[in-house]
């Protein structure tokens, strides 16, 4: 069943967003009577049927509500700014596994520079990627994409989470499942991932002083995009519904 975003419903009817209507008609060739999944982008989705399909748009009738696909734990990933298009991959896969938010972070060893001029376009691209990923995996809420934060801003946000985990290549002893055994009841988790060069010892120390726990992902060194997705998946498996 294809999924589409809709405009705010009017009773039990709604219109697909303009770009969604074009895709439904011109690409998928959907017709009145065809069924689909309608999503409002704010956490609700329904089984729906097309009432009208024309060049001026698509109108659907909403019927039974569908599960939102949201996990019982909120996971926010603070990602050290990576090179090239790795952030695109990270955003897509975090959406699929069930993370709630992605926060790009300027860290000490980041090679990529923050560019305010290109920032809005970059964020718009990431939001488009996450919306498409949410449709593909039938998730009612796309991943939240934050404006890039500085390191001091990240440290200020650490207290907003029940638990903050720092997967670090030099961590020993504590694994993700050990953290779960210690703090199994938490429902809001922050995960801090370094960029290609990792995090400096000073940055890790500052996180620990803010209450974060360092964890090891095993003896193998993972790429930053791999570490981000694996860490979120492990947390959502232990604390969530993955």
Query: Which runs of at least 5 residues are low in confidence (pLDDT < 50)?
Result: none
N- and C-termini, Cα separation: 22 Å
Helices and strands: which structural class?
Answer: alpha/beta
Biggest sheet, in brief?
Answer: 6 strands, parallel
Briefly, what CATH class of the largest domain? Alpha Beta
Taking all Cα atoms into account, the compactness measure Rg is 20 Å
- Average pLDDT value? 93
Strand arrangement in the largest pleated sheet: 8-7-6-10-9-11
Order of helices and strands: EEHEEEEHEHEHEHEHEH
| Total count of helical runs of at least 4 residues | 7
Find the CATH topology of the largest domain. Alpha/beta knot
Extended strand count: 11
**Considering DSSP H and I runs of 4 or more, what fraction of the residues is helical?**
25-40%
Outline the structure in words:
This protein has 242 residues and is an alpha/beta fold. The chain has two domains: 3-65, Hypothetical PUA domain-like, domain 1 (Ribosomal Protein L25, Chain P); 74-238, Alpha/beta knot (3-Layer(aba) Sandwich). 32% of the residues lie in helices and 24% in strands. The protein is built from seven helices and eleven strands. The strands form two sheets. The protein has a six-stranded parallel sheet with strand order 8-7-6-10-9-11, with helices on both faces. Strand 6 (74-80), helix 2 (86-97) and strand 7 (101-105) form a beta-alpha-beta unit. Helix 2 (86-97) runs parallel beside helix 3. The longest helix has 18 residues, at 119-136. It is elongated. The mean pLDDT is 93.
């Amino acid at each position: 069943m294809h999924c589409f975003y809709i405009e705010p419903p009017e009773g039990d009817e709604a219109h697909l967003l303009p770009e969604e209507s074009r895709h439904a008609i011109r690409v998928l060739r959907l017709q009145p009577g065809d069924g689909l999944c309608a999503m409002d982008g704010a956490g609700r989705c329904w089984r729906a049927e097309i009432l009208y399909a024309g060049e001026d748009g698509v109108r659907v009738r909403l019927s039974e509500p569908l599960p939102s696909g949201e996990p019982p734990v909120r996971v926010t990933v603070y990602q050290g700014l990576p090179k090239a298009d790795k952030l695109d991959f990270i955003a897509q896969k975090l959406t699929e596994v069930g993370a709630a938010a992605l926060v790009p972070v300027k860290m000490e060893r980041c090679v990529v520079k923050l560019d305010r001029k290109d920032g809005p376009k970059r964020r718009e691209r990431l939001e488009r990627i996450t919306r498409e990923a949410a449709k593909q995996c039938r998730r009612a809420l796309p991943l939240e994409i934050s404006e890039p934060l500085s390191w001091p801003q990240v440290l200020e946000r650490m207290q907003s989470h029940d638990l903050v985990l720092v997967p670090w290549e030099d961590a020993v002893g504590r694994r993700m499942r050990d953290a779960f055994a210690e703090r199994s009841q938490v429902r809001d988790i922050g995960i801090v991932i370094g960029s290609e060069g990792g995090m400096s010892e000073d940055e890790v120390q500052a996180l620990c002083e803010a209450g974060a726990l360092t964890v090891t992902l095993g003896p193998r060194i993972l790429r930053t995009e791999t570490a981000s997705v694996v860490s979120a998946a492990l947390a959502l498996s232990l604390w969530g519904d993955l």
